[in-house]
Design goal:
Blueprint lengths: L1 H17 L6 H7 L1 H17 L3 H15 L1 E3 L4 E2 L4 E3 L4 E3 L4 E2 L4 E3 L3 E3 L11 E2 L4 E2 L4 E3 L3 E2 L4 E2 L4 E2 L7 E4 L4 E4 L11 H4 L8
Parallel strand pairs: 1-4, 2-5, 3-6, 4-7, 5-8, 6-9, 7-10, 8-11, 9-12, 10-13, 12-14
Antiparallel strand pairs: 14-15
Length: 195
C-alpha cells in the first residue's frame, strides 16, 4: 500500500512539473484523464504479469472507454510517465516506455507486423512525443529525444535527437532545446515522499 501511495504522489508531482495548467493535486487527481489511464494501466499490467489476462484485457477496455487512452496490459511503462490531453493514444502490447516520458494526444506506439514478437516501440527515458505522432515497429527512441507533432517514425532515433516530418527526419537536439526538460532531481527528491 505504501508503494502505491508513493507512486500516486510522484505522479501528481509529475503532472505539476509537466503541465503549467495543473493547479493542485486534488483537482489533478479528479480531472486528469491521463493520470486515470496510467493508474488503471498499472492495475491491468499487474494482473497481466500474474497471468490474469482475461480480466486485465477487460479492465483495459473499460480504461479505454472511460479515458480515451488505449494501453495494452502487456505494455511496460516506467515512472513519471505523463499523458497530456490523452484522448486517442494507443500503446501496443510489446511497447516499453522508460522513465520521465511525456505523450500528447493522438500518439500511437504501434506495430507493423502480425506476429507474436517484439513489434512495438521502445521509448527510452525523458522522451517527449508530440500530438498525433506515430511511432511504428520495434524501433528505439533514444533517451532525451523529441518526436514532433504528426511525425511518422519507422526507424530508430538516436539519443538527444529530434525527429520531425513524414517520414521523420532526424537531427541532433540543440542545447537550447533541452532547457525546458524536467529535472527529476528538482521535483522528485526521494525524501519528499513521506506521507
Amino acid at each position: 500500500m505504501w508503494k502505491v501511495l508513493t507512486t500516486i504522489r510522484e505522479d501528481l508531482r509529475n503532472a505539476r512539473a509537466h503541465d503549467p495548467a495543473a493547479r493542485g493535486d486534488l483537482e489533478n487527481a479528479i480531472v486528469y484523464s491521463g493520470l486515470h489511464a496510467i493508474w488503471m494501466h498499472r492495475a491491468c499490467h499487474w494482473m497481466w504479469k500474474r497471468d490474469i489476462k482475461g480480466p486485465a484485457r477487460i479492465l483495459a477496455q473499460i480504461n479505454r472507454f472511460l479515458t480515451g487512452v488505449e494501453i495494452h496490459p502487456g505494455a511496460t511503462i516506467g515512472r513519471r510517465f505523463f499523458i497530456d490531453h490523452g484522448m486517442g493514444i494507443v500503446i501496443g502490447e510489446t511497447a516499453e516506455i522508460g522513465d520521465g516520458v511525456m505523450l500528447y494526444h493522438g500518439v500511437t506506439l504501434g506495430g507493423q507486423v502480425l506476429t507474436q514478437t517484439k513489434r512495438h516501440p521502445t521509448v527510452e527515458d525523458n522522451v517527449t512525443i508530440g500530438a498525433g505522432a506515430k511511432v511504428l515497429g520495434p524501433v528505439t527512441i533514444g533517451a532525451n529525444s523529441a518526436i514532433g507533432a504528426n511525425a511518422v517514425v519507422t526507424k530508430s532515433i538516436p539519443p538527444n535527437s529530434i525527429a520531425v516530418g513524414i517520414p521523420a527526419k532526424v537531427r541532433e537536439r540543440r542545447t537550447e532545446e533541452t532547457k525546458h526538460l524536467v529535472d527529476p532531481d528538482k521535483y522528485f527528491d526521494p525524501g519528499s515522499y513521506i506521507i
